[in-house]
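hey so u asked for the seq, here:
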Amino acid sequence: MLNIIDKSSFKHKFQVRVRTWETDFLGVVHNSNFLRYMEIGRIEYRRDFGYDISPKGASHDGLKVFVAHNSIDYLSTSKFDDLLNIYTRVSWIKNSSFCFEHIIENASDDIVIAKGLGIIVNVDYKTNKPVDLPSKFVDEVMNFETDCKLLR
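ran it, structure tokens below
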């Protein structure tokens, strides 16, 4: 069975090539690396909006976020030197949290290797307690994404 998933709602794509240290003794990408690939997708998504991560661990737009949950479904394997497409989108936004969804596929054959999601929480700089997402962030995402749900 081929793992081909509709990616039409994913507007953001970033490519990563599998490096030697990401593979295990079986010669395939170790499952833990897919968390890294998802994180790369999230960072590059934000970077494409013009934001960088500051040395203090937050974006220069004021967002300081923590990952509250990650989940991954592994559908196929990947090996050294494969070029991977990492598709990323924001599927919903609540008051202080939002959800990144990811599809990771082999660029050579469009076979989906993994799909996953990460729930992200915006926190206060000093207390690390959840705080509302800035309206600028919400507006930017809602204007970019075609089917992001606002659940406030």
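Residues 12-143 form a domain with the Thiol Ester Dehydrase; Chain A fold (CATH 3.10.129.10). The two ends are 39 Å apart (CA to CA).
lmk if thats what u needed
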